[in-house]
Amino acid sequence: MQSSQQKRKTVNPLSAFLLIFQGALVGVGAVLPGISGGVLSVIFGIYKPLMEFLSNPGKTFKIHFPRLFPFFCGYILGFLGIANVLSFFLEKYPDPSVCVFIGLITGMLPSLFREAGEQGRSKGSYISMILCMCVIFALLIGLHMTSIEVSPNFFWYLFCGFCLALSLIAPGMSFSTLLMPLGLYTPFVDGIGHFNLNILVPGAVGAVITVICLAKTVNVLFHKYYSFAFHGIIGIVIAATVMIVPVRSFSAPGSAVLNAFCILAGIGAALALDKFNSQVKAKQ
């Protein structure tokens, strides 16, 4: 992880545009069912500086904020604006839309794996990856099998905010996957879309408390156990991605071809985005 003593890097207009675009995708991923904003932030290489900033904003402000500001702007745009547009496609064409995201994540896995090995690998790194993968598989399968609805109130919306922040801090933890089994996803997202303060306030409080409590812990893990932590996240990303594959839609030849095309398109876009991102970093 970047040290807080590193020299501050400036952000040129091209890289700022890229960060806004990436932030928008993370914001979209945060709100759409089955997608994890945290996974996308890892894929785009923004996760580590984000955790370092959230865990100690005062100390790392000059280092990370110039890069994170356009990202945050894009995140808000994606969460509140673009997400509404993509929600239309998710409702009308749910399986192809999800397959595009699957392709995006798959296409960025090679660069993610390279970054995970920056400080070397060991048997423990692979054990961490497999263990985290198994835990997420078990958790998400258990949530899919659970169907308990609750009556939304102030304290449940606090919980919604906790889940929303957790989906960014803990990659693979899609807040929609956590809230849907409880019947909280629709009223929470509806309240956000309509700027309902009775929902926004407790949600924001829950999210802030979660960030304060967990961001520093995640940051310490990366500092002290970089390889273990990063490979563990890769395991989480793989498990979370496998769990959103619309398996049933591949049974019909027509939809299978369309879904496969969307996955390939997502992979192609991710590889192009990774190449563009590398070129931008090389120029800085």
What labels describe this entry?
284 residues, mainly alpha, globular, transmembrane helix, VCA0040-like, membrane, transmembrane
Write the SSE topology.
Blueprint: H1 13-31, H2 37-43, H3 47-55, H4 57-92, H5 94-116, H6 123-145, H7 154-169, H8 175-179, H9 185-193, H10 197-224, H11 226-243, H12 253-283
Helix pairs in contact: 1-2, 1-4, 2-5, 2-7, 3-4, 3-10, 4-5, 5-11, 5-12, 6-11, 7-10, 10-11
Structure description:
The chain is mainly alpha-helical and 284 residues long. It contains 12 helices and no strands. The chain has helices at residues 13-31, 37-43, 47-55, 57-92, 94-116, 123-145, 154-169, 175-179, 185-193, 197-224, 226-243, 253-283. α5 (94-116) packs parallel to α12 (253-283). The longest helix has 36 residues, at 57-92. It is globular and about 45 Å long. Mean pLDDT is 80; it is low at 1-7.
At a glance:
The protein is mostly helical.
Radius of gyration: 18 Å
Number of strands: 0
**What number is the mean pLDDT?**
80
**CA(first)-CA(last) distance:** 19 Å
Our count of helices gives: 12
Helix content: over 70%
Oligomer: single chain
* Unreliable residue stretches: 1-7
* Secondary-structure element series: HHHHHHHHHHHH
Q: Which class do the helix and strand fractions yield?
A: mainly alpha
Please tell me what the overall shape is.
globular
> Main beta sheet, described?
none
- Taken as a percent bin, the fraction of beta residues is under 5%
